[in-house]
Request: fold
Amino acid sequence: MKPCLFTLMALVFLFSTALADDEASNRPIVRSSEYGAYFAKSIPSGYYGQEGVTLVYHVEADENILLYEYPWYASEMYLGGNGDGTLVRFGPWCRGSEPLEDHLAIGFYRDGRVIREYSTLEIATLGSGVSESVSHYEVFGQRLGFRSSSYGFFFEVMGVDDVLFCFDLETGEIVE
Reply:
């Protein structure tokens, strides 16, 4: 009897773990800059993926002014707060178990144009590590965000193996 009970409990645990690993469907989202002077509204075209539109606005007292429009949807993005039009987005849920060239890891944008985009394969090759689950994988862990120094403005993120990636916001390049 006890082996059957143990097997049943193990199956329930595995089934509930698999259910908890399901991809959430897309929904419209809004993200604001640090001090709230800018915000981005991202609207999906479908239930999953990156199809959609992202609109970046400047907040005014009487109305919001549309500054930029991007031809993609992102559920995770960050806006620079100093009015330079910088936007950082992370790729969607990466289905599968290994990094691929056509899976977006992170992208940098300014004034409605692409500065630099990295695939999950590029980031993994640079030492981020890969965290796998039942249905997807990740190459990034903690998002540290924007920072400035006497050398310029940067965006920092940790790989899943605790490798720090520091991206220059002017070029999108990784700095040492």
Summary: The chain is about 15% helix and 45% strand. The first strand starts at residue 29 and ends at 32. Residues 77 and 89 are 4 Å apart (CA to CA).
